[in-house]
Amino acid sequence: MPNITGHTELVGLMAYPIRHSQSPTTHNLAYDKIGVDAVQLAFEVDNDSLKDAIQSIRALKMLGANISMPNKTVVHQYLDDVDEAARLCGAINTVVNTRDADGNVTGFLKGYNTDGMGYWQAMKEEGIDCKGMKMVLIGTGGAATAVAVRGALDGVAELHLFNIRDKFYPRGEEIVDIINRNTACKADMHDLGDKALLRELMGQADLLCDATGMGMHPLEDRTNIPDPSYFHPELIVTDTVYAPRETVMMKQAKEAGCTRVYNGMGMMLFQALIAIELFTGKSAPVDYMKKKLGI
Ligand code: NAD
What is the mean pLDDT of residues 162-167? Predict the structure, then answer.
């Protein structure tokens, strides 16, 4: 329990619904460990109250706020600046009240998307560099888009997006276009129903990411990959799902001889730790948090 005084600073978490979130637990453990006198509190904020809630970051001199649904895609209009990756993927999950040279908050609010940063930081921690990689990415929702854009900006050479023909498919086509126009990465979009093409492109890929939620409740018995023969042993296999810790897809990959197989815990941890660093200007306690979260 933090020792709250008149000096304690506030970080918000603004979404609706939000009461189930683990974020305040993660943030408050980290603030305590690095000796930052701050707390994160969750606030039920929807699109109707978002403008006032963002203005309160300035009025109350808060350090900033984490932003989740339904606010991620609309919050940009209330901010002063948006980081390039967040702008390209059209979603912001972290609003930082920037500081002046003396460390005081200025009221100039900048938006970031730490989901993509978190995924790639988790890869880096495993010694994996995205530069020049060929990647197959399944999904075109919020998580996939953040991973795709950050990876493309940071040096992924080829990005093959696959999705089912649902309402997210057109978003995938847009993201491919945005990546091709704004980065050196060559991106294309495919129907996940085309299993022959999925097999062919997985066969040539260095990295696979499933960012669909397949393998997570209520789809815990399912996988987007028809069978283990789609994987080659050198393929790095990642899932954004972290509960369960091992999805059906991860089991298939291991059965096929893949040794570098990762769940979404790293992404989840680092998206939070990067936000904590942005809010506080201090390095987050990676090993301590891994231990606390059982990673
Ligand atoms: P979203 O709703 O924005 O996107 C869902 C995606 O899954 C879409 O591309 C959709 O077409 C696809 N999809 C849905 N049902 C499908 C099915 N039956 N078969 C194949 N594809 C299907 O969701 P999101 O926010 O992008 O989250 C996706 C997953 O990533 C979830 O499991 C979420 O928990 C996880 N996630 C993890 C982290 C992390 O930090 N590890 C962060 C964000 C999201």
Answer: 98
| 87-123: burial string, b at 16+ Cβ within 10 Å, e else | bbbbbbbbbbbeeeeeeebeeebbbbbbbbbbbbbbb
What is the C-alpha separation between 222 and 216, in angstroms, rounded?
A: 8
Q: What is the distance between the terminal CA atoms of the chain, rounded to a whole angstrom?
A: 22
Does the Cβ of 216 fall within 6 Å of ligand 1?
A: yes
The helix (run of H) or strand (run of E) holding residue 122 is: helix 114-125
pLDDT for the residue numbered 295 = 82
Q: What would the DSSP string read from start to end of 234-270?
A: T-EEEES--SSSS-HHHHHHHHTT---EE-THHHHHH
CA of 138 to the centre of ligand 1 (A): 9
Range 66-91 average pLDDT: 97
Tokens of 226: 């028809």
Residue 1 has pLDDT above 70, yes or no: no
**Contact (Cβ atoms closer than 8 angstroms) between residue 273 and residue 280:** no
Tokens of 77: 């209009």
* CA of residue 59 relative to chain centroid, distance: 28
Atom 12 in ligand 1: residue holding the nearest Cα: 212
